[in-house]
Amino acid sequence: MITSLHNKDIKAAAALSAKKKERDRQGLFVVEGPKMFGEAPVERISRVYVAQSAAAQMYEQYGAKLSGLPCETVSDEVFAKMSDTKTPQGILCLVRQQHYYIEEILRDSVKKQMLFIMLEDIQDPGNLGTIFRTAEAAGADGVIMNSSTVDIYNPKTIRSTMGSVYRVPFFYVESLSSIIIRLREEGVSVYAAHLGGKDAYDDCSYQKSTAFLIGNEASGLREETAACADALIRIPMEGKVESLNAAVASSVLLFEASRQRRKIKT
Amino acid sequence: MITSLHNKDIKAAAALSAKKKERDRQGLFVVEGPKMFGEAPVERISRVYVAQSAAAQMYEQYGAKLSGLPCETVSDEVFAKMSDTKTPQGILCLVRQQHYYIEEILRDSVKKQMLFIMLEDIQDPGNLGTIFRTAEAAGADGVIMNSSTVDIYNPKTIRSTMGSVYRVPFFYVESLSSIIIRLREEGVSVYAAHLGGKDAYDDCSYQKSTAFLIGNEASGLREETAACADALIRIPMEGKVESLNAAVASSVLLFEASRQRRKIKT
Question: Which one of A137, A138, A251 has the shortest CB-CB distance to B251?
Fold first, then answer.
């Protein structure tokens, strides 16, 4: 059992929770809690840590999955050092990052109705995670983010994906403009959610391959990015609300596409 | 200028941030930051506190609104004690709670298409605030919560309403069952979001007065509450997602009602 806060593996794991730079350097990220451990693809788990006080319960519940994995029991104090949460849940694991390639995904673009969500400068980790979860539920093929969007491997983001981070392909690009042009070449229509949009979102058809563009929580999309889209669309709002939460706007658009596609099928 | 952490007004304000019991006892709640102060109805503001380091800027920006209000400048240390946030934004105010009455709102129920969102056991303050913001944008007439739902006056909830807390009527009830029966008497159809729902949410018509029922983030609706609804509906999901975030599910349903009602008008 590891009891020293100065153990080098413990320090490396704590750095993964705290710093994007370390996550990129080590090619790993931290996943906390029984649910997220349970959903983690076993071939991507590099190491598991179990807190002493939770060890009996974790081995009982996850014995089969744990048996093939490098697993260390650590003191509760050591566990708390690695954990990002106020009330650690007794198990965490280091998971290998996955790299996806847009061209690989676009290979299917002629065959099927694709659906993407593109995010610019999203800052709230919880919003980003919720968007991944929603994107999977709405049948999206991928999430595309510019490099100023918060890190998908931020522990708060990971938690709010509820496991979708393992399953939804995603890409970071320096700027969204060039990828928008690439998507349009492949026949994907790009709709930018914009307060100045002319058409209501539900007056457009999303039967063909579609990508939705969502901007920063406070300032919206950059002008030069919005200018690359096929059309600006708006979500009609009542009351004195100035804008919707970014995850809410994403949900309304993604599920409108999902709704329209189901209607045609039936 | 107040510089003492032991000042009784400061202690009272700090208690409002920290404890629901104190908020209920004093009939007040705390609102932080320039945006939320700017949107607060002036007749409901009981007192304003400005941090010393932000005072010049706040008086310049909000001089007109501040001039008629009891306002105290406090040291940054004192301000931090009252604040709920890690990076205090220099201004906070105490606002009087507002009480709404369901019967008053239901008086309009024969005249118009009403729209309600009903929440059971929602625990995440950010989710609750986001639901208020979305409810206003979708044109809802009120938010109805059972008494085990998180407090709307929690500082985190207040922040994520982005001002909707001042404008959307809401009610807490001991249990939702009796209010569901009351709503149905008034001709409001009550749809429960439920993983076991038969109909897809977009196969129902929300042209008439409608209420949506949303349950706890992890465990969903209580059986006895779901049993009171007119119908159980589900949001079709792809992938391996088990459920949607509560604010996302609320958004999809509220904006589907809004969409259907706009379509008929035009």
Answer: A251
Place of tokens 């413990």: A10
Nearest to A241 among B137, B240, B263 (CB): B137
What is the number of other CB atoms lying within 10 angstroms of the CB of residue B187?
Answer: 12
ipTM for this model: 0.94
CB A256 within 8 A of CB A202: yes
The pLDDT of residue B265 is 67
Instruction: State mean pLDDT over A152-180.
Output: 95
Burial A206-235 (b: 16+ CB within 10 A, else e): beebbbbbbbbbeebbbeebbebbbebbbb
3-state SS class at A254: helix
Please, what's the b/e burial string for A57-90 (b: 16 or more CB within 10 A of its CB; e: otherwise)? ebeeebeebbeeeebebbbeebbbbbbbeeebbb
Would strands A91-96 and A45-51 be described as parallel, antiparallel, or unpaired? antiparallel
- 3-state secondary structure at position B69: coil
Q: What is the pLDDT of residues B220-261, one digit of tens each?
A: 999 999 999 999 999 999 999 999 999 999 999 999 999 999
- Residue A179 — very low, low, confident or very high, per pLDDT cuts 50/70/90? very high
> Beta strand pairing status for A189-193 and A210-214?
parallel
Query: Which residues in chain A are closer than 8 Å to B244, comparing Cβ atoms?
Result: 133-134, 137, 251
Give the span between the Cα atoms of B245 and B233, in whole angstroms.
16
DSSP H or E stretch at residue A13: helix A8-18
Question: Does residue A135 contact residue A164 with C-beta atoms inside 8 Å?
Answer: yes
Q: Please, what are the domains in chain A?
A: 8-96 (3.30.1330.30), 102-265 (3.40.1280.10)
Q: Which of B2, B6, B47 is nearest to B27 (CA)?
A: B47
- In angstroms, the CA A116 to CA A211 distance is 4
